[in-house]
Amino acid sequence: MLDFVEAKGETARMRIEHWIEGERTPGRSSRVAPVFNPATGQQSAELLLAEPEDVADAVRSAQQAFVGWSETSVSRRAKVLFAFRELVSASAEELAHLVVAEHGKVFSDALGEVQRGLEVIEFACGIPTLLKGDYSDQVSAGVDTYSFREPLGVVAGITPFNFPVMVPMWMHPVAIACGNSFILKPSERDPSASLLVAELWQRAGLPDGVFSVVNGDKVTVDALLDHPSIAAVSFVGSTPIARYVHERGTRAGKRVQALGGAKNHAVVLPDADVEFAAEHLSAAAFGSAGERCMAISVAVAVGPVADEVVRAVSTRAGAVKVGDGRDASSDMGPVVSRAAQQRIVDLIATAPEQGASVVVDGRDLVVAGREEGFFVGPTVIDGVTTDMDAYQEEIFGPVLSVVRVETVEEALALINSNPYGNGTAIFTSSGEAARRFARGVDVGMIGINVPVPVPMAFYSFGGWKDSLVGDKHVHGMEGVSFYTRAKVVTSRWPAPKAASGASFAFPTSD
Ligand code: NAD
Residue 237 C-alpha to ligand 1 middle, in angstroms? Predict the structure, then answer.
């Protein structure tokens, strides 16, 4: 959790509000938190933190809006989704600029996350097809059965800082297309993009109250989890908070899906193209400063290939241009906060103390003109073993640990004994080895010569083990299923005055 500054009154800074009942509002918030530009290290805004009363207002508005929205025809709902898709597409650069300013990632990367969010909206545009039910004629004499799915009501999403556009879009386009009202609690570190998204929904024709944004911290999250009129909660963030949200939300009777943290391994087999693998490993480890839940943070080098992997990755790590995300020549920006920077530097320091060697060291990197920015350079640590802090912690920074093993079986066992199971990859030229790996690994998303295997929106995204609390993944058909519940109707239309044939025996299909 962040330490929130109780400092309302510094009016010179931009103030970020909530979006309730179709407009920006300060609500009844009296507490604020600082928002920073990570590239300069300067505070850029103060964020109002929603109180339980603000959450109650948002829920009331969402409940009222649900009455009309859930009755709106599915084709009319699809039209709003199509209009939203066009507006998000036209606003992609504006959204990306907001992401860069508060998250720090480079502009091209921010545009990429908007694109991946757009793909979920495109998936949700197909909602008339996605919600088609089943029909069975004549299941008994004169009796038919059909099924369909209905929305849940008011649902909420609680999201992390690392994809402020894409991760909320894993949720709200699908939930809203299904006929629900949606309340978003974005990360307190980069909240601004969500308010622009709210305006775009409104311009697309979505009735006020169907999409709301409550900014805030634990107080806000707890109010959402406890509110009796919220039917379901989607969460993405770190594993301890995923567990907390799942426990508290389900105790309050809600449906909860909670995606947690990760430690993603990429195996490099001796038959791999080492230069290809190193290029992709480097992008997967250092892209977005390693702050992706699908970032590769461990390279598992098998047998004689290890020295070559370390050499090739280190060369590339040294060539990464680190700078302000707004500078088009930067490959990688800062990490999100001063605290994250310090934590990453401290974790790197444990590696040589525990017997590993820091081959490329990003700890002392200074970006000219951005001396106060939260930068850490790409770092490669060789000789990491599973008992070291660098292996056990989710570093969530631009740090690649290299673990050396002798066989592919050893690599598989290592990954399967790690508590996380979000993503993994294998670099090889052997189809047989790749297939064996994909079938044997206890991980939700697997790449074969693809280091960041984020599924397209028409598949579902989610990990295994400590990377997921609950059972449903996001978007794709699991998303539609999460935001709806099924009805099955058994129906008979007897001819006038037909003999009823009613019996006290349990009905069968004769
Ligand atoms: P976080 O868990 O600190 O915060 C996530 C959300 O929970 C935020 O909205 C935050 O306000 C809220 N929160 C934080 N502490 C809370 C508390 N004590 N009580 C109630 N709510 C609280 O995560 P983060 O630092 O924003 O994001 C990084 C983490 O998210 C990493 O662990 C990363 O792996 C994970 N992540 C996972 C996925 C995935 O798909 N599995 C995707 C993106 C990020």
Answer: 3
Are 49 and 32 a contacting pair, CB within 8 Å? yes
Q: Return the pLDDT at 74.
A: 98
Residue with tokens 């084709």: 75
Cβ–Cβ < 8 Å for 138, 144: yes
Contact 39, 372 (CB under 8 A): no
What is the pLDDT averaged over residues 125-146? 97
Give the residue-averaged pLDDT of 352-381: 98
CATH ID of 264-448, from 3.10.50.40, 3.40.50.720, 3.40.309.10, 3.40.50.20: 3.40.309.10
Mutate to test the pocket of ligand 1, among 241, 344, 460, 475 (most ligand atoms within 8 A of CB): 241
Residue 498's pLDDT is 78
Mean pLDDT of the region 88-99: 98
Pick the residue whose CA is nearest to atom 27 on ligand 1: 160
Give the DSSP H or E segment for 492. strand 484-492
Q: What's the CATH number of domain 52-260+467-488, 3.40.50.150, 3.80.10.10, 3.40.605.10, 3.40.50.10800?
A: 3.40.605.10
pTM of the model: 0.96
Q: Is 178 a catalytic residue?
A: no
State the pLDDT at residue 445: 98
